[in-house]
Amino acid sequence: MPRLTQQEIQNNVFKQAYDREVFRLAKYDFLVNTVKDKRLKKLFKIFSKTASSHIAELKQEMQKLDIK
Fold this sequence. Notes:
By secondary structure, the protein is mainly α. It has one domain. Helices cover about 80% and strands about 0% of the residues. The chain has two helices and no strands. It has helices spanning about 5-35, 40-65. The protein is elongated. The protein starts with 5 loop residues before the first helix and ends with a helix. The mean pLDDT is about 95.
């Protein structure tokens, strides 16, 4: 059974983190548009902005590490 290299593990971890943040962003955007309560809507908007920020950070780091 072949072993994964450090580079392959790193690539997989970054890709999984990116995918999870994209999913969170979609989920929070859906909730922002669905929820009627203003406080919850505001909270989900904050979560959405945070997920967007995480996605941008991950993209930047992935470019530095040449992960596609």
